Amino acid sequence: xxxxxxxxxxxxxxxxxxxDDSTPMAAINIVYDVGSKDxxxxxxxxxxxxxxxxxxxxxxxxxxxxxLQLAGGDSNAFxxxxxxxxxxxxxxxxxxxxxxxxxxRMMRLNFSEKSLxxxxxxxxxxxxxxxxxxxxxxxxxxxMKLSYHQHPYQWPTIGKEPKHIEEAKLEDVRDFFYKYYRPxxxxxxxxxxxxxxxxxxxxxxxxxxxxKGNRPPRALPQELPHGKMDKMIQEKEVPLDALFIAFxxxxxxxxxxxxxxxxxxxLSNGRSARxxxxxxxEQKLFNQIDAYITGHFEPGLLIIEGKPAEGVSIxxxxxxIWKELEELKRxxxxxxxxxKLKNKIESTLVFSEMNALTKAMNLAYFELLGNAExxxxxxxxxxxxxxxxxxxxxxxxxVRENCAELFYKAKTVE
Length: 414
Known about the structure:
By secondary structure, the protein is α+β, with helices and mostly antiparallel strands. Helix content is 41%, strand content 19%. It folds into two domains: 5-207, 2-Layer Sandwich (Cytochrome Bc1 Complex, Chain A, domain 1), CATH 3.30.830.10; 230-410, Cytochrome Bc1 Complex, Chain A, domain 1. The strands form two sheets. A six-stranded mixed beta sheet has the order 1-2-6-3-5-4, with helices on both faces. Strands 7-11-8-10-9 form a five-stranded mixed beta sheet, sandwiched between helices.
């Protein structure tokens, strides 16, 4: 049970505080309610670009990391389709340094052609290194485009193409910042050796005078059922053939989300999971096979990916996967198998709340999702999934007209 208190500043910044005097540290997480799904289809990659720009200097601090490291702290950030998250961990007595730094870059970034040019080059190089010059590096570009025809999940966080970042103008960057990086579009969570009163005072001191913005309404196009399998075959210079199968699944707050998550574990969570035991160890059809969910806030994907063993065609491998899926849909899993998976998930949830940083991040995550109170009921949702519910969801989700398939076929080098 994670206890916390919540309050809100006049400018709309929501603040969550978890007191924990068992640690000498304190963690701060600031989550902005903006991800790649909020981008203009012709200007993608901006949310990720801003993750970099936010470390490139603000109104009063030319170097974000320097003062934090002098205070014994560390920081990092990430961006995904749904959110942008910045987090710091510092000795609790130096927490005001983190408040100062985070508030300064929320107040105003150092907008300059030089800063933009530096970060633009960094992001474009990252795009080339991870997406263009790596085997299977463009998998998310193809798979998401196959899976989403209307919804902006159809492009990955890094963007559709380097050109969108290369052509980013200073005016575009400034507009994006003042549109989304405002206190009323953010959540500040603090966990560790702090008190609610001290955090309230620091929040008012450092964030209270930042003006709120005109928070834009979110009206995203919803993905309609495709009614058929979307399929693509890529012949490329990759080490091995590979296949990816993506099934549409409900959003993060849907009651069926937890059943789909458990389904992915039935297929691929440990050495006793069906894919590993039957397809990799017994039949030796795969060198590698996995199943997982994207966990998107809005309707996401259950993804199966695998690399067939030497001498096994990708078509044979695909057929074996579908055979296992049909078996899962035909016969409900045993109660003992389901309970074992529930125990694993519950253990994972407990370990995810062991330190101040993960507590701060989880509180901010669930507050953005709808209510931070949800941090304490996740285990119950998994416990309440029955074998009957799991069977019904499997038969609804794991069907050909609800999925997209992407094959990579290795080119023969002459």
